[in-house]
Please model this.
Amino acid sequence: MAGMLQEAEHAAQILGMQLQFVPAASPDEIEGAFSLMIRERADALSVFPSPILFAAYGRIARIAADRKLPAIYAAREGAEAGGLISYGANLPDLARNAAYVDKFSNGLNSRTCLCSNRRSSS
Model:
């Protein structure tokens, strides 16, 4: 996570933007985080990946929409839950590919495997 924060700060500096990091370590802290963003007049919201907040994406998307705060999510599920946009890996595809790596590392012959190389259009 520290690397992502540094990259975001670097990109913002290049673009002449000022970032304000507002942590929410649990679903109980979401309302407070939004209150702070509104008080500080945030222009947008970027939701970093968080296994703790993953199940709250729908709630986060609703609050962001109610407060007219555009939000980008690091996981597709954020947009599927009603968020504006997502930019990141497709988590189910990553898990599926990890299963293939495990099978190949345990001796599965790639010539006899009917593995899918399908590209998702979503």
The longest strand covers residues 45-47. Strands lie at 45-47, 71-73, 85-86. The chain has two domains: 2-88, 90-122. Residues 90-122 form one domain.
